[in-house]
Amino acid sequence: MRIVYMGTPDIAAIILKRLLEEPYEIVLTVTQPDRPKGRGKELAKSPVKVLSEEHGIPVFQPERLRNPEAVAVIREAKPDMIVVAAFGQILPKEILDMPKYGCINVHASLLPAYRGAAPIQWAVLDGQKESGVTIMYMNEGLDTGDILLQKRVSLSPEETGGSLYDTLSVMGAELLTEAIPKIVDGTLTAVPQGEMTTAYAKQLTKEMGRLDFTRPAEELERYIRGLNPWPGTYTQLDGKTFKIWRAEVVTLTDSSLEIGTVTDITKKSFTFVTGKGGLRVLELQPEGKRRMTTEEFLRGYHFH
């Protein structure tokens, strides 16, 4: 079976790597154009492009998949199935209608929850108890196609955006390889999604990482985990920026303390006063330095 694979970031590369172990012919991968990255702003290949080149798979990088020239390239590949995972563009109807077995999407949420660009992190940010992966047919909407297969996973109290990303990458790869033969032999029943059950999982931004201490400590602690590793959460102490990597919610005994101030300083930790409760910092990273425990940090730091 001839498959055109569309994807861009690490999760898409992990799924592609697993797909390459199956007896299918990956005739083309479609990924986003090389983008400037890092301080030097040098052009960087996507993880899917890197893996494709390692395996000698032709790579196509259109700026816009809707252009007639791009549609023609996909048509020339004669796909029996198109598999999409975190590609970053919506597929036009001409492409959706091409393959005999349809366009299949691997989406890292339990649809209709968390349609959108960052479903993994938003499950943590919102304090969900479970997440998962959905294999679905694609249509002209954004993550609105019929569901073919789903698998659930419970989130631990220490779950981060990064740890869930790793879990769902592997789960998505396995669920896809389970789904494809069933799609081909017609043993999967497609189920319409219905209305979205959560807010749209909008793209993450660096600005989201600034800790707003007027918010409850419980919410801030979830943001610290959900935005780990990127973009990370941060605040300022004595005019310098600090990333906060790990914290816990604590009860404050003094309710008269001003929001945003530091209290309960010990040899091992300190606590920010928030809109509700305290946020005890356990691991941080001073500007220009390495990540460290708060205990290490406090050996050489004194609050003014």
Keywords:
alpha/beta; 8 helices; 15 strands
How big is the Rg? 22 Å
Helix/strand-derived category reads: alpha/beta
Strand content: 25-35%
Please give the largest β-sheet: 7 strands, mixed
The averaged pLDDT comes out at: 96
Number of DSSP helical runs: 8
Q: How many distinct beta strands?
A: 15
Strand order of the largest sheet: 5-2-1-6-7-8-9
Roughly how many Å apart are the termini? 67 Å
List unreliable stretches of 5+ residues: none
The proportion of residues forming helix, as a percent range, comes to 25-40%
Gross morphology is elongated
Q: What is the H-and-E element order?
A: EHEEEHEHEHEHEEHHEEEEEEH
Q: Summarize this, please?
A:
By secondary structure, this protein is α/β, with parallel strands linked by helices. The chain is built from 8 helices and 15 strands.
Written account of the structure:
- This protein has 8 helices and 15 strands.
- It is α/β, with parallel strands linked by helices and about 300 residues long.
- The strands form 3 sheets. Strands 5-2-1-6-7-8-9 form a 7-stranded mixed β-sheet. Strands 10, 11, 12, 13, 14 and 15 form a 6-stranded antiparallel β-sheet that branches. Strands 3-4 form a two-stranded antiparallel ribbon.
- Helix 1 (about 10-20) packs parallel to helix 6 and helix 5 (about 120-125) packs across helix 6.
- The protein starts with a strand and ends in a 5-residue tail after the last helix.
- The model has no long low-confidence stretch (mean pLDDT about 95).
